[in-house]
Design goal:
- By secondary structure, this protein is mainly beta.
- 3% of the residues lie in helices and 46% in strands.
- The strands form two sheets. Strands 2, 4, 5, 6, 9, 10 and 11 form a seven-stranded mixed sheet that branches. A four-stranded antiparallel sheet has the order 1-3-8-7, with no helix packed on it.
- The longest helix has 4 residues.
Length: 129
């Protein structure tokens, strides 16, 4: 049974940092395509940071470039999202997602996570003073 479990969300002041983790069980993250997606109230889900199969390419939402870093630890079968210099507009529910389909960014999967097989239940990030 595949499970993705996020952790690390919470309340942080503007300018602060958080590191989200997503522990995966049931399949190997190595060579998988992975991503973090955010959904703010009343808005569509958007891709924040994604890595394609075999780490060939990495995508970041323009508004987070230079502040967020996506990574994976294959030994721990865990993916991460390091978020620095957080802004109020970064707030929302963050979901990790992954699968082993071979699909590059030309399909657009990084935008909203369409056809990604496995998802976590989400962790809430609130940025407020």
């Amino acid at each position: 049974q595949v499970q993705l479990v996020e952790s690390g969300g919470g309340l942080v002041q503007p300018g602060g940092s958080l590191r989200l983790s997503c522990a995966v069980s049931g399949f190997s993250l190595e060579h998988a395509r992975i991503g973090w997606f955010r959904q703010a109230p009343g808005k569509e889900r958007v891709g924040v940071a994604c890595i394609s199969n075999r780490d060939i390419a990495t995508y970041y939402l323009d508004s987070v470039k230079g502040r967020f870093t996506i990574s994976r630890d294959n030994a721990k079968n865990t993916m991460y999202l390091q978020m620095n210099n957080l802004k109020p507009e970064d707030a929302g529910v963050y979901y990790c997602a992954a699968d082993q389909k071979v699909m590059d960014f030309r399909s657009g999967w990084y935008r909203g996570g369409a056809n990604l097989d496995y998802w976590g239940k989400g962790t809430v990030v609130t940025v407020s003073s």
